[in-house]
Amino acid sequence: MAGTAPERIVIENCAVATVDAHDTEYAAGHVVVAGNVIESVGAGAAPEGLANVVRRVDGTGHLATPGLVNTHHHFYQWITRGLAQDSNLFNWLVALYPTWARIDEEMVYAAAQGSLAMMARGGVTTAMDHHYVFPRGTGDLLGAEIRAARETGVRFTAARGSMDRGASDGGLPPDFAVETLDGILEATEAAIDTHHDASFGSMLHIAVAPCSPFSVSTELMREGAKLARRKGVRLHTHGSETVEEEKFCHELFGMGPTDYFESTGWLGDDVWMAHCVHMNDSDIAAFARTGTGVAHCPSSNARLAAGIARVPDMLAAGVPVGLGVDGTASNESGELHTELRNALLINRLGGHRENALNARQALRLGTFGGAQVLGRTAEIGSLEAGKLADLVLWKLDGIGHASIADPVAALVLGAAAPITLSLVNGRAVVEDGRLTTVDEDAVARSTRAEAQRLARIAADAS
Ligand SMILES: [Zn+2]
């Protein structure tokens, strides 16, 4: 019955990098989408005689890849970019906390729109956000982000973050920027009950995400882990980002960050952690043994002079590694496709030199690796029949890329590639480089207005 058959989109004549288990690639191939799933991927033309084809795309001069998966971000920082430009992490945080503590729902909504628009127009099909600043009486901040993600049309993991260790308890944030333990646990459980959708093809997951060892009590780490496991959701936090954090953990807990995470229930295959820059061999072995994932954020780590994460060693040990933009107060570009290149380049400055990462490994970090750390490899991360139709068609026949024969090298090593089409769940979110779902110019105006409003409020309060 034609009326009930799924609508099909046929993409042909493009190079295809599937990022499947064998890194299968086709120099000239096809992808057929049926409804919200991939029906077939292969060499040459699409199968003939397909019913209900609503669109045919000639992919000549293009590369099709899985959609990019971002595994670490702080959307609200979109309206505090370009500040504390020459600080390390702790000084940068101390400079920004007082401003961040003045955000409200309108600001977070605009910032989320800006963050999501920037990522989506650069090929991100699954976004995540780690939001941990909840000033009292400022509205439904998590709900504002979820609304923005729904409007942008990307798949989304909203990590309900938190801070309860203020300066008077030996923490880094000022006391007025933190919540109470009970309030956090109650709000986090309510967010899971209200929003988390665990079904196949879900557009929205919730994760439990206390901010970091230096802003969260040990009790919140323990209780947060218990809550996440009782509810069957994932756990996320920052870990081993800087030498200052390592020193802080030794002074306060008498052990390094990884041992501290282990002691509080924070290693496991349902956990992923941002950064993991300062890890010794036994830390990496502990992550590998437990299946704990890593969100590698090369630009942010460079911006804050944090160091170079040992990604080649993590991959060799079997640690799941994805890529993250991180908040845009420490990575003003806010794009993930450029992080493929930055991950490769920055890791080659480390001990493994030219053997650190190759272009295909970088693409894998940004796609399948992201799906791994978000616990979604059955659904996304590679172009395979039966998986969700999240894919990007990169235009590689323009001046920036046409003279590079290897399309994956052109994508990863070359300039940021334009996007002809990006599908999320079978729906076009980008067409010819522009978002179809939101008005980019309107978002630019509202983010500027909200950034200026926040700056005024922060200046008046100081
Ligand atoms: Zn972060």
From TrEMBL:
Residues 64-406 form the Amidohydrolase-related domain. Keywords: Hydrolase, Metal-binding, Zinc. The keyword Thylakoid does not apply. It is an enzyme of class 3 (hydrolase). Its EC number is 3.5.4.32. One of its GO terms (molecular function) is 8-oxoguanine deaminase activity. It comes from the Bacteria. CDD domains: ATZ_TRZ_like. It holds the Pfam family Amidohydro_1. PANTHER family: AMIDOHYDROLASE-RELATED DOMAIN-CONTAINING PROTEIN, AMINOHYDROLASE SSNA-RELATED. This is 8-oxoguanine deaminase. It comes from Streptomyces chumphonensis.
